[in-house]
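As a representative case, the lines below give one protein's residues and fold tokens.
***
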Amino acid sequence: MTDSSSHQSSDLRSDGNRRIPLAIDPNFIRPIPSTVSPSNNEPDDSDKTQNGIQDAPLKGQSLISNPYELFGGMPLDQLIPIILQSRGAGSKFADLSEDVLLDEIAKETGSVEQQKSLDDNANVDNSAFVENLDEEALKPQQIEEPLAKEEEKQMTQEQFQQLRASTVQSLNLSLNESSLALEFVSLLLSSVRPSAASASMSPFLKKTVPAASLNAEKIPFEKPKESEAIEKGLVTRGWKLRSLEESRLLLKDTHRALEASLMKEQNYWSKVSRHTSKKDVIFKMRDQETGEKSLGLKYGYEDSGSTYTQERGIAILKYNSIKDSLEAIPSGKQQVQSMKKGIAEKFMRVRIFTRMKEEDDYILSGETALDDLLVLNSNTSDEHDIRRQISKLQFLIFEKELMFHLKKESESLISYGVTIENENKITVEFPTEKMEFEMMSLTDEVIMNHQQDAPKTNDKKASLVLVMLRMLLVTMFKKQIKKELLMAAPQKPSRTFDSEALLLRPIIGKFRHENYLSLLQKVIKAYILDVVDNSTVTQLPSTRRSSSKGADGDVYDKHITKLDEEIGLFDRILQLPRTELKVQLPSSGRIEFGLESSNYCNATTSVKFDDASNVTVFDTKFSNFKELEDFLHFIVSEYVTDSKAQD
């Protein structure tokens, strides 16, 4: 248990002999004195030197390293620190025991034996290596050419200057860093040792930074008073109670909001499920005003063949929590604003004015009544409120589209007495009456006036005209659907469709045809019946077949066939008006008249005269009643009256 320096000093003597360390008590070993006298035959000093024989150790010198000789007489106050220093820092003399020392000796003995075995292995390897070297030395060596010496690259002056500049820069940087570190240490030291710190400070630091400014002091902890501790505890408890109360209120409000939202959603979806059917087109959309996701309902007639593009015909289904009802609100912003002002709800009104004979003026003789959807009914239950709103929106957009097509068609009928007064009013004049088609805003005053008005003579006629207009618009829808189906199936033979709208033309044609027929009957009476005795006139039944029902009905598929059948129901309205009259002349033959129109508005009269022997004498057409009068006067005077006079 001695220091390494002490071992080295004890193991190596001045004569260079190495001592053998022992693990036994050195007091039991004593050197043996030499009793053999020197012989005369001993070699001299030169021989000893040549043979490598060294002198024997001195007489009385120990052959082993005995630490007891060095530390045996040392006092304990000096020996104990040396022992602790040799064992390392942190060791205590009180922790030393006999068992610990025995364990250390056993470990040291094991390490010595392991080192000895390693030395033996090294000796064996060295002997084998020497043998290999001897064998290789006996082998013939190959003569190789000397390797070419690599030319050393010479450094240029420019490279040297660059290296020198970078080295100087690195040195300056290191100097600056070390100076900053020295300044920091000096400033930190100035609070404890001002004189030593000021000696190493730079003049700039002394001027700019006061000494002892970089320092840290220990702040003593002051124990709070009992009153302060109680007050702090009360404040802490108060904040906790306030936080709990606010959390309770927040959770309560959130629960109420979630409950109200859940109830709102439940009512919304239950009403949507109750008041909508599979015929309604419902889809997801975003509200343009609020940006929220909602359900959209298509109330327009785009899927039914409508070509009206002035309004989208889409409403948003919203739940009104105040009224606890579902509302259908149009999606267009302009339409919503106009509906709030009450100007978007417009309906078609047809009025008939009759001309007064004495005065050149008209008197109201017929007017259409308000539809039931436009009049609020107190008996209507809330369950059907949303259906009523949807039906009302469909009715209003249908009326707008009807007026749109009427104005478009009226542009080509100005020469037939049709006048566009403004964007909401169209007037059609006939010889004895006048019709007005006007879009009226739905106001309380209009509703009250319609409810209080007395019935008039031509109210039914006005209602029939309005119903006919709506039916003709539905027919246009069906024709458009049929056209789209035929375009989607080009292999099927298609028929030509009328590109123009047929709304006013059939109605005007009916009225004008009646006027032309009345005028024709007057002409026949004046020029034939009043002149020829016993002559009679009869109206022949119409034998024209339906134009929609033909032999090609079985060519299309079932959908187109069904559309043809539905369109065929309106053939009597869409047919060009035609009336056939037959005037029987006694013993002079007969005259057949055919009154028809090529575009619903004009009139063409065909006249066919057959004599008594059924020979056709004349067969011609007239578009002017004055010419017709002259022709009838000629036939009666030349063929009827003269033949009777000859008889």
Summary: The chain has 17 helices and 16 strands.
